[in-house]
Design a protein that fits this description.
With about 280 residues, the protein is an alpha+beta fold. It has helices spanning about 5-40, 50-55, 105-125, 145-155, 185-200, 220-235, and strands spanning about 100-105, 135-140, 160-170, 180-185, 210-215, 250, 255-260, 270-275. The strands form two sheets. The chain has a four-stranded antiparallel beta sheet with strand order 2-1-7-8. Strands 5-4-3-6 form a four-stranded antiparallel beta sheet. This is Cyclic phosphodiesterase.
Length: about 280
C-alpha cells in the first residue's frame, strides 16, 4: 500500500497536468477566436479591373474620363477579340492600319442581332461580326492607333446621344453591304456622321447609314433571296414571332473604335480598340 506522502505527490502531479492542459486549450481557443473575429472584418482584396475596353487601348480611366469601362462578356461590343498593344503591327504587311468608328446596339437588341448575324453567316458560309452601324470607316492617321483614339476622344465630346431607327431589310452591290438593315437618315444619325468627318478631317461620299447582317460576295439572285428571308424573320408574321426584332432601333450613347483593315475579308484581324461615351 503506497504511503500518504507518495499518494499526495501523485495527486499534485495529476492536477498539474490537468491545469497545463486547460491552459493550452484556453490559449488555442483564444487564438482561434481572434482569427475568426479578424476574418469578420477582413474583405478579400480584388484587383481593380479597368475592363476590356480600357485595357485594349492601354489607357486607364483616370487618364481619360471619356473612355468607357468595358466588361468581359458584356453585350457592349460583342468583340471578335480585343486588340492588344501593337496587334495591328503583327498583322500581315498587306493589311493597312485602318480603323472604323461604330455605333453598336446593346442589351436585348444587341444580343438578338448578334445571333441573327451568326445565323445568316452560317447559312451562307460567311464570317460573323458584331452588330454595328458604321459612323465613319477607312480611318487612317499618320500617328496610327494612338492618334485615332485621341481624335475619337475629342469627337465624343462634340456628339450628343441620339437614336438609330431601322426602316427595312435591303441589299447592296459590295461585300460589306451584301444584306443589311437600312437606317433612317434622321437628324441625330446624320449630324453624328457629319461631325465625325469634320473632326477627323475626312471627305467621303454621301453617308448611307445601315446595320449589316451579312458580308458576302454571293450573286445578286442569292442576295435578293437573303433579303426576303431576313425580312420574314425580322418583320414577318411567318416567323412565328420567335425572331421578330425586339426593337426597331436603338439609342447610341457611345462610339466604339475598331481596327478593321478592309482587305481582310475573313475579319480575323479585326479587333476592338476602345470605346468613348458621347458627352456633347
Amino acid at each position: 500500500m503506497p504511503s500518504p506522502a507518495r499518494s499526495s505527490a501523485w495527486v499534485l502531479a495529476l492536477c498539474g497536468v490537468a491545469l497545463l492542459g486547460c491552459g493550452l486549450y484556453a490559449f488555442s481557443s483564444g487564438v482561434s477566436s481572434s482569427q475568426r473575429g479578424l476574418s469578420l472584418f477582413q474583405r478579400p482584396q480584388h484587383p481593380a479591373s479597368d475592363g476590356l475596353v480600357i485595357a485594349a487601348a492601354g489607357l486607364s480611366s483616370r487618364s481619360d474620363p471619356h473612355r468607357l469601362r468595358g466588361h468581359q462578356g458584356s453585350s457592349l461590343a460583342h468583340p471578335l477579340r480585343v486588340c492588344t498593344a501593337g496587334s495591328s503591327m503583327s498583322a500581315p504587311e498587306a493589311l493597312r492600319d485602318q480603323y472604323s468608328l461604330w455605333a453598336q446596339p446593346k442589351g436585348r437588341l444587341g444580343e438578338q442581332l448578334k445571333a441573327e448575324i451568326a445565323h445568316l453567316a452560317a447559312r451562307h458560309g460567311a464570317p460573323a461580326f458584331p452588330p454595328h452601324t458604321t459612323v465613319l470607316g477607312d480611318i487612317e492617321r499618320p500617328g496610327g492607333r494612338q492618334e485615332v483614339l485621341a481624335v475619337a476622344a475629342e469627337l465624343a465630346k462634340k456628339v450628343k446621344k441620339y437614336r438609330i431607327n431601322f426602316t427595312d431589310v435591303t441589299r447592296g452591290p459590295i461585300y460589306y453591304q451584301c444584306v443589311y438593315l437600312r437606317v433612317a437618315k434622321d437628324d441625330g444619325a446624320m449630324a453624328a456622321a457629319a461631325t465625325a468627318r469634320e473632326v477627323f478631317g475626312t471627305t467621303t461620299g454621301p453617308y448611307m447609314p445601315h446595320l449589316s447582317l451579312l458580308y458576302s460576295d454571293i450573286p445578286e439572285e442569292e442576295r435578293a433571296k437573303a433579303v426576303e428571308y431576313e425580312t420574314a424573320r425580322l418583320y414577318g408574321e411567318s416567323s412565328g414571332y420567335d425572331t421578330l426584332l425586339v426593337e426597331n432601333g436603338y439609342e447610341v450613347d457611345s462610339f466604339a473604335v475598331w481596327y478593321t483593315p478592309v482587305a481582310d475579308k475573313s475579319l480575323k484581324s479585326w479587333c476592338l480598340v476602345g470605346e468613348f461615351e458621347l458627352t456633347g
